[in-house]
Amino acid sequence: MSLSFVIVDDDAVSRRMLQTIIEDCGIGEITGTAGGGGEGVRRILEVRPDVVLIDLLMPDQDGIETITQLINQGFNGKYIMISQIENKEMVGRAYQRGIEFFIHKPINRVEVEAVLVRVNERWKYESYIVEIKQSLAKLGDLGISTLRKERTVRDVAKVILMELGIIGEIGSQDIISLMEYLIERRQEARFPALKELYEIAATAAKQNQKDVEKECKAIEQRIRRTVMAALTNMASIGLTDYCNPKFEYYAPLYFDFQDVRMRMKEMDEELNSEKGKANIKKFLQVLYIEILEKMKR
Description:
The protein is an alpha/beta fold. It is built from 13 helices and 5 strands. It has helices at residues 12-25, 37-47, 63-72, 88-96, 109-138, 144-150, 153-163, 171-184, 194-205, 209-240, 245-254, 257-268, 280-296; strands at 3-8, 28-34, 51-55, 78-83, 101-104.
């Protein structure tokens, strides 16, 4: 199932650019466009899209006023604000009204695609949470012990990895498998070295020693790329909104903050670094501890 979008912008060129980028990404479809706030309200309430991309400044009414009208009329979709101004007060008002992401004008394809990917990850995460809640609700009459039994390591790990924006990365499955192995043997006093963890995962997948060595290297690379993707996601959120609760919680918890700041600097200066630094063992240890804590609740 893909996302549905409505674009509200008085600039026809911007509307066409955004529509083209969304369609090229394959993330969703455009179910409507509007050239002003009043027209946008009518169109959005008619088609009920998942996501609204809306210009901050429009002649008839600004984006914040339009969003306020939509909220008052019961629309609860996601909003992406399109803006060419850097006024902190207006940006703050936008966040208060429920804006989750900003796209800056002039429109840049790379920025738009990055924002769309994050919105898509958030949508997947929230859909997954709804599914979990519905599943748990069906088990409500079976007692608390049954509910706890159904809360598996895989379920908890998936939610956290979705929050970090990496559930779609191929290495996320390796990470989840390692968490299942570690928590099954949590009575052991020490946390294994990374090399040992990679070898454990590789041995479970392969029998031949030569194949095990190759798989070990492949797992190491997949996990590293996945952790780096999480670091990049946090850095991106930090650049957009340094006070974002997700950034404030996950960035210092899962990463050495100097690594986060370095990645933010690289992104701000538009440097494409593939040799970024991240403490992989810290990431896995923190994930392991957080899963244990959440499973106790």
